[in-house]
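Section 5.1 Outputs to date
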Amino acid sequence: LESSQAVPCDSDTAAWSHVNSSNPYGTFPECSELTSPTSYELSATIEFPATADASCPNDTVIGDAVISDLTTSTESAYDCLDSSECSIGSDDVSCVASTDAGNTTFSVTLLLAQTGGDLTSTSTITAFEAQLEADTADWTLSY
């Protein structure tokens, strides 16, 4: 990948220097290398309604609650957390309270990192995302 090839045009024959009898179409060798990613990351935000004057719990408290809920789930999409293919650290979860038109909302953001398993495909992290999206419609925030 670190080599280069000069391909001048011969002014006498009007032919490129890399076109010859063994390479009549002037095909260049591969100049790139296909590599698999070393990780995938998923950032997801889940919104919960809150009482008007509520404030978010400590990020560590909310992080521990979210991680506990996911790791104790029976949904196979979350199995990557048990097998250590994926991880969510307590410091990878944050909560922000916002009020709009008198309605207070908690926005809980989590960062999932997949660093193991089959990294040639996004199927693990895609399944996690789809399951999280399906589950959070019924979640309630308790800590």
